[in-house]
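Hello,

Following up on my earlier ticket. Below are the two sequence lines again, exactly as submitted.
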Amino acid sequence: GESVGLHLPTLSVQEGDNSIINCAYSNSASDYFIWYKQESGKGPQFIIDIRSNMDKRQGQRVTVLLNKTVKHLSLQIAATQPGDSAVYFCADEGMNTGFQKLVFGTGTRLLVSP
Amino acid sequence: EPEVTQTPSHQVTQMGQEVILRCVPISNHLYFYWYRQILGQKVEFLVSFYNNEISEKSEIFDDQFSVERPDGSNFTLKIRSTKLEDSAMYFCASSLQGNEKLFFGSGTQLSVL
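Thanks for your patience. The regenerated structure is below:
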């Protein structure tokens, strides 16, 4: 079946370090990938997305890398701050129906120490 | 910044009772969704809604579930006869277009006793 999963459940970093969160997906037909951040008591918050015709996309302090050959997605956060502490989910568009029927991964908890 | 709002934030109900979870999507958005997250598990798609009809639903979204857009601003999820396993955080989301990013609400925590 189709699945999106994460390699590590928890990532602990020091403030100022760069963080890398990884994700593997299984649906080779996936066309669209998104990273979400979820803080305690809140809904998923969009961070950055990437389509399958790209292998890298940069935002403010974040970069998403897509390796379609090995079906791997990563989120890089530069100069991690305590406010970045949250659970990070990758998601793909599932069966690409044109609607956002997202398939979420399990999530990685990022802990940033001062 | 516009946001999706959900009420109530917490809902406790007895098994077999009906519950209605309410959402106000972002005002100019056209696509609406419900997702849920059972404690410690992944966020799961339930249903998508466009042009006043369900466009897609998951196997979770059985006959006990229904959605409605009763007016121009609200979007509701009804569970007719709640079961213990319906206990979860339910997230409403909306997007401007079908292939654009989702904006999620803060969720309603449903506890079925």
